[in-house]
Design goal:
Strand 5, helix 5 and strand 6 form a beta-alpha-beta unit. By secondary structure, the protein is of the alpha/beta class. An eight-stranded mixed beta sheet has the order 1-2-4-3-5-6-7-8, sandwiched between helices. The protein has one domain: Alpha/Beta hydrolase fold, catalytic domain (Rossmann fold). The protein has eight helices and eight strands; from the N terminus they run H-E-E-E-H-E-H-H-E-H-E-E-H-E-H-H.
Length: 261
């Protein structure tokens, strides 16, 4: 029996599938003279190169929530970079500050694009990334950012917006949108009302874009973030986490990425 047991153990170990080994590390990159702080995650058990996904944070700035989504993407088999749009990893801790920081970039799209492109370049340089297969996702402010990048013709496989603003001061021109678009929004989100959704549909139709809009009944703003209820109460904002919409939208993203990659 003493000789048989080790053989059995070795056989069992050989038959056990390789477990996921998600790695995550902070990285620094530059956009012009501004130091940017990001977080990149990948599954080290996967061999070879795989698609990359940029994760654009909410208006609060680069934080743990964005990093968690990057790790979740790594679990799906992608290399994901939670980027920094504000520079030096700055975060806002009050809606007034968040509004000013995010608003400054919404009003300066060339600067926003420059910072987005800097993050993209950093992602493409990672040893695990196939630079020809890049997508971007964003939450709230980040959702608006990835849509603006699509409008400007960024050469991405696709972009996905979670409860992001759909309005713009620079509507997409016919034929300009290269990325496939997935928009996921809440039916009860006062920041993204039905007329804004309809205007976005008309804009995309006129531009000839490939897009899909999914509206989740009963979902309010920031429906994917478990901390939304706390933020809503603390700052008297109409925010609320919605577990079913969170899970359904993530499943929709997984299908979308699989299709476009």
């Amino acid at each position: 029996m003493k000789r048989i047991v080790p053989i059995i153990l070795l056989t069992l170990l050989a038959a056990t599938p390789t477990l996921a080994a998600v790695k995550g590390e902070e990285i620094q990159y530059k956009s012009g003279d501004v130091a940017m702080r990001g977080y990149i995650a990948w599954d080290d058990a996967i061999k070879g190169k795989r698609p990359g996904v940029l994760v654009v944070h909410e208006w609060w700035g680069h934080n743990e929530y964005a990093r968690r989504r990057a790790r979740m993407l790594a679990e799906l088999g992608y290399t994901a970079l939670a980027l920094d749009m504000y520079g030096d990893g700055k975060q806002a801790h009050h809606p007034d500050d968040a509004g000013k920081m995010s608003g400054a970039l919404r009003e300066n799209l060339p600067l926003a694009r420059k910072r987005f492109d800097a993050a993209r370049a950093a992602l493409e340089k990672h040893r695990t990334v196939d630079a020809k297969r890049i997508a971007a996702i964003g939450y709230c402010f980040g959702g608006a950012v990835v849509l603006e990048m699509a409008r400007m013709g960024e050469p991405l496989r696709g972009v996905a917006s979670f409860h992001g603003s759909l309005n713009t001061n620079a509507p997409a021109k016919a034929g300009a949108v290269k990325a496939a678009i997935l928009v996921m929004t809440g039916a009860d989100d006062p920041f993204v009302p039905a007329d804004q959704v309809e205007a976005f549909r008309k804009e995309m139709d006129a531009a000839g874009a490939k897009y899909e809009v999914v509206v989740y009944p009963g979902a309010k703003h920031s429906f994917t973030n478990p901390d939304a209820d706390e933020y809503g109460k603390k700052f008297n904002l109409p925010l609320a986490y919605n577990e079913s919409a969170d899970k359904e939208s993530w499943a929709a993203l997984a299908r979308f990425l699989k299709e476009i990659m």
